[in-house]
Amino acid sequence: MREQDARAFGARGDGVTLDTEALQAAIDALDAGDTLVLSGGVFVTGTLTLKSHMTLRIEADAELCASRNLAHYRDCGFYHNEMKRTVSLLYALDAEEICITGGGVIQLSGDAFMDFSKMGLPPEIDRTTLLPEHAVQTVVRVRRGGRPTQPIFFNNCRDIHIDGVQIFNSPCWTLVFSNSEDITVENVYMDNHARIPNNDGIHCSASRNITVRNSTFLCGDDCFAATCITNWDGVCENIEISDCLMSSRSAAIRFGHLSSHVRHARVRNVKVIDSNRALIAFAKDGGRVEDITVENLVSETRIFAGYWWGKGEGFVLCTAGSDGVIDGITLKDCSFTEENPSIIAGEDARISRVTLENCHFAYRAVDTHPYYYGKLDLQPNIPQLEPAPFHVGDMLYVKEGACRDFKIV
């Protein structure tokens, strides 16, 4: 096992030179167990293909910086059900034993692909009444020409370890694990721009044996999402999330989406601040979310102006408008400070075995309150906002007929 310095292959690390060719040559030259070291500089690059049995170590004094020119990226060949072409900064297909570590920075340059002069605002908000301090909460638009869609992407991989790096400014889903297993993300600090759409912190799709711990995720979209978007026939399962700080304009933690099957997840010791929603489980059209336990979740949620799913709820369990199933949800020793009440919604008791044990709720309004208070937001299950049958200060709304075997203890 050797350590290879990227500069030995011609990388400049001067923050100006495009080092893609040199960095890829360095990766290609690694033998099993070798480490590529980036140190003492800013290494600008386009798309790089990672390989099995390698470590990429970005030292604390180094930065791997994504090019701000989309022409420096390439399609990795994976067809994504939602994003279509998969364009990444770092990717691996059909690989194993890959580690990214070192304490340095991965700068994903997401702002280069956004038009901040154009904001996404839903029709129910009158633009003429939007205050300037609220306009900066809205979603911005992707520039014509597109963006990297899966900046750090693994498909059909196993034994992936992301440890100690700092990741900034993602243009879309940040760390993506698709059809993969044995994944560990720890000691990561991630800070994405709060107005960029779809910049999920970690998105696990049809993957298993996932551990996320001791990390911070500040994102516009979901901080952690478990779905099956890249493989609707798969299952996302065996998930452990612990000792994390999260902030999101969408949901800090998402389990399920449309027909995804997600099961066996444990969350403990997570703090959610300045967020739209803390925890959600959604199932639609054959989707299932099963066996989720959450302990010691402390959250503060609020309404944000702009086109974000969710309206300040603490947690949402939803099978509305579908034959989806949610079964076996336990929330224990959790605290929700929320602007709209937490919601359990669906029909025909397709949500079952829900237990709230020693959970506490508190109401808080913020200055965006008039935009969305009293709106029932169950997107994407129900595409339109509905007038909600709850009142100011309500903490929990359970739609009649939505849930069986529901207990508060």
What does this protein structure show overall?
By secondary structure, this protein is mostly beta strands. The strands form 5 sheets. The chain has a 22-stranded parallel sheet that branches. An 11-stranded parallel sheet has the order 5-10-15-18-21-24-26-28-30-33-38. Strand 8 and strand 9 form a beta hairpin. The N and C termini lie far apart (55 Å). The mean pLDDT is 95.
How many strands?
Answer: 39
Shape: globular
- Major beta-sheet overview: 22 strands, parallel
Q: How far do the termini sit from each other?
A: 55 Å
Stretches where pLDDT is under 50 for at least 5 consecutive residues are none
Put simply, the count of helices is 3
Q: Share of helix among residues?
A: under 10%
- Please tell me the overall pLDDT: 95
Question: Pairing-aware structural class of the strands and helices?
Answer: mainly beta
Computed Rg: 21 Å
**DSSP strand content:** over 45%
Descriptors for this entry?
409 residues; 3 helices; globular; 22-stranded parallel β-sheet; eleven-stranded parallel β-sheet; 4% helix; mainly beta
Q: Which helices and strands, and how do they pair?
A:
Blueprint: E1 3-5, E2 14-18, H1 20-28, E3 35-38, E4 41-45, E5 48-49, E6 54-58, E7 62-66, E8 75-80, E9 84-87, E10 90-93, E11 96-101, E12 105-107, E13 114-120, H2 132-135, E14 139-142, E15 152-155, E16 158-163, E17 166-168, E18 175-178, E19 181-186, E20 189-191, E21 202-205, E22 208-213, E23 216-219, E24 224-227, E25 236-248, E26 251-255, E27 261-275, E28 277-282, E29 288-301, E30 315-318, E31 325-332, E32 335-338, E33 342-345, E34 351-357, E35 360-363, H3 369-372, E36 375-376, E37 386-387, E38 396-398, E39 403-408
Parallel strand pairs: 1-3, 2-4, 3-6, 4-7, 5-10, 6-11, 7-12, 10-15, 11-16, 12-17, 15-18, 16-19, 17-20, 18-21, 19-22, 20-23, 21-24, 22-25, 23-25, 24-26, 25-27, 26-28, 27-29, 28-30, 29-31, 29-32, 30-33, 31-34, 32-35, 33-38, 34-39
Antiparallel strand pairs: 8-9, 13-14, 36-37
